[in-house]
């Protein structure tokens, strides 16, 4: 009997040898270094300080970027790495995604050569951690409304404002902070310890507990002009970074779904109800069939988007298609798997309830499901329905 959720579509046959090798390397690292501990990290609402260097050792931080100590892999290989990381926990994939696709990508794409040389090799190795300060307490889906400002004062800039829901915030050595300026919008590199710059962790989360989420507060924070990202002069700067992160989520959320299905397959084969395995019941098999169908469709969509990205022809509307589908279907799969696990499904001994809690956040961040529906709708109709 087929027990691998993607075996029916022979997914491995669609990958190159290098892509499979990278995928297997990340999977082995996850099984050895992350999976045995992730339930405890989730319970403790914390992650180890040495995760950055550990991720740096296997080359997943900024792995899809070229030069400066980055691996320069294909987009598909990066997506597969995200899938394996999120199969362990969305919070761990978020750590890698924020580091590489948001903070490092912002510096790589919009920074100066001096900024790239200073930060990217250290960040690729995990010796320096970054975060990405865009979302504000009153402005999430509408970043154009941000209230954080930066004003010129001689040769410096002075930043005032607050950012919230910032992954890696209190662990970051450098924050990429986006602010309003007279000319529009700009990004700044704010280092830990800069006077007036403080962070506060957000507690009592029921989701992404194996992840650090913080508020950034900037009160008269003075940085030199050399800390400004010279290439970013509009919202195109941060939005381009979000597209990079959304692409990784398209693959990543499917990893959480796959892990839920794999654990559920093992459970229903062993669990006996009325003197026969739970797997032998029609309703069980119907649920499993529907979940594998959605997972496999999502994998094929994600792979196609990855091939388009590697070919340099992936529009941001297609990324919205992938992010919306993967997160929505993964969350539905996690919830359904929980039902098949019965009472066992509400403990962290099994992963579906943890994945379901995490995916509630993944459905929302980097663009809510509703915003992605409107992005796709605008592309289909030519009408903007955001307001």
Your description of this structure?
Its cofactor is FAD. Keywords: FAD, Flavoprotein, Oxidoreductase, Transit peptide. Belongs to the acyl-CoA dehydrogenase family. With 387 residues, the protein is an alpha+beta fold. The protein has three domains: 7-124, Orthogonal Bundle (Butyryl-Coa Dehydrogenase, subunit A, domain 1), CATH 1.10.540.10; 130-227, Butyryl-CoA Dehydrogenase, subunit A, domain 2, CATH 2.40.110; 236-381, Butyryl-CoA Dehydrogenase, subunit A, domain 3, CATH 1.20.140. The chain has helices at residues 17-34, 38-44, 51-57, 75-88, 90-110, 113-124, 236-270, 282-310, 316-341, 352-364, 369-381, and strands spanning 130-133, 149-153, 156-167, 174-181, 184-191, 197-201, 213-224, 272-273, 276-277. It has a four-stranded antiparallel beta sheet, covered by helices on one side. A hairpin with a 2-residue loop joins strand 4 and strand 5.
Quick tags:
glutaryl-CoA dehydrogenase activity; Butyryl-CoA Dehydrogenase, subunit A, domain 2; 4-stranded antiparallel beta sheet; AcylCo_DH/oxidase_C; alpha+beta; Butyryl-CoA Dehydrogenase, subunit A, domain 3; 387 residues; 3 domains; Butyryl-Coa Dehydrogenase, subunit A, domain 1; Acyl-CoA_Oxase/DH_mid-dom_sf
Number of helices: 11
Q: Averaging pLDDT over every residue, what do you get? A: 97
**Count of all domains:** 3
Strand content: 5-15%
The CATH level-2 architecture of the largest domain is identified as Up-down Bundle
Strand order of the largest sheet: 2-3-7-6
Which percent range fits the helix content? 40-55%
Which series of helices and strands comes N to C? HHHHHHEEEEEEEHEEHHHH
Poorly predicted runs: none
The coarse overall form would be: globular
Identify the CATH homologous superfamily of the largest domain: Butyryl-CoA Dehydrogenase, subunit A, domain 3
End-to-end separation in angstroms reads 51 Å
SS elements, strand count: 9
- CATH class value of the largest domain: Mainly Alpha
Q: What is the SS-derived class? A: alpha+beta
Cofactor: FAD
Keywords: FAD, Flavoprotein, Oxidoreductase, Transit peptide
Domain Acyl-CoA dehydrogenase/oxidase C-terminal: 240-380
Family: Belongs to the acyl-CoA dehydrogenase family.
